[in-house]
């Protein structure tokens, strides 16, 4: 007993604490439901991206094989010097990295900025050999596909980290916080019920003595 308040397992055994504990259980349960909903949404997004990336990887493997064959054909038809000449006229693309938000998770959003160069579409069509032009188009496609794959793989890593973090938080609430609060609630209730029984017995005893004295 301390200042008229009984302490057990660091729990204040009062009716106010009983009400506060009930509120905390309600808030924790609501938070747990929200975390589970968030985790389910993140897992769905992860599985969706994983499914998309499988198809993209298969496509890029096929396109790389096609591109290599086209380069070999270009070397046979037009020679290595022609391929090198065209490559020197190209410019290196700049990849711009932004972010977008999915369920509170910032995932990368990649964009390509290609500076102006002499290889305009008109020049490619009119002045570049067909075999080299076909190879250029194929490798442009491969570059775009690799960019999308890189973006999605990075997104998957960030989503997986967030899923793990959300899972740990929900487990802590479900398996530690709520059981502890329920135990505290039980202790407080048992104490208050016992105190109420004691008070009732005391009142009954006093009443019986009062009646005896009156008689």
TrEMBL record:
GO cellular component: plasma membrane
Pfam families, per database record: ATP-synt_D
Keywords, alphabetical: ATP synthesis, Cell membrane, Hydrogen ion transport, Ion transport, Membrane, Transport
Subcellular location: Cell membrane
Membrane topology: Peripheral membrane protein
GO BP term, pick one: proton motive force-driven plasma membrane ATP synthesis
Major subcellular location class: membrane
Described purpose of this protein according to its UniProt entry: Component of the A-type ATP synthase that produces ATP from ADP in the presence of a proton gradient across the membrane.
Self-association state and partner proteins as the record states: Has multiple subunits with at least A(3), B(3), C, D, E, F, H, I and proteolipid K(x).
HAMAP family assigned: ATP_synth_D_arch
Name listed for the protein in its UniProt record: A-type ATP synthase subunit D
Organism, as annotated: Acidiplasma aeolicum
Organism ancestry: Archaea, Methanobacteriati, Thermoplasmatota, Thermoplasmata, Thermoplasmatales
Gene (UniProt): atpD
